[in-house]
Write a structure and sequence with these properties.
Helix content is 26%, strand content 39%. It has 129 residues and is an alpha+beta fold. It starts with 11 loop residues before the first helix and ends with a strand.
């Protein structure tokens, strides 16, 4: 697999955009952490690549946005490190789309965990007529 060895850090503008989205979602200032981590970019290739990360915790859930290329972002959320969840689609060209997708995926997961059926096509809670 061809790997981009020069993955840029998140820009200040991108960090501010992420901050604004998550603050709006939770209605309060959520602390962001920046770092680097090894990310397996291809499930069939065990090689890991150092990628810039944005990490936060809200309501006992942890979130990670990984920058995997110039215009490539992936996201995960988890309550327990052994059980991690990602988004569908798995990769995004804009960090804002990636953040919105992981927030929606976590919200859907939470609703389903509470027994509220989610229509996977529309991502809206199903209701009985």
């Amino acid at each position: 697999m061809l790997i981009d060895s020069t993955i840029p850090d998140f820009s200040g503008e991108q960090i501010q955009a992420v901050q604004a989205l998550i603050n709006k979602r939770y209605g309060e200032e959520i602390e962001l952490h920046l770092g680097d981590g090894e990310v397996q970019l291809d499930i069939e290739d065990p090689e890991r690549v150092d990628c810039p990360l944005i990490i936060w915790n809200a309501r006992d859930c942890n979130y990670i946005i990984s920058r995997t290329g110039e215009h490539r972002y992936i996201a995960q959320f988890f309550y327990n490190p052994k059980l991690q969840y990602s988004t569908n689609p798995a990769q995004f060209a804009k960090v804002e789309e990636c953040v919105l997708a992981v927030l929606q995926a976590q919200c859907d997961f939470e609703l389903e965990s509470e027994g509220v059926p989610i229509d996977s096509a529309s991502k809206e809670p199903e209701t009985s007529a």
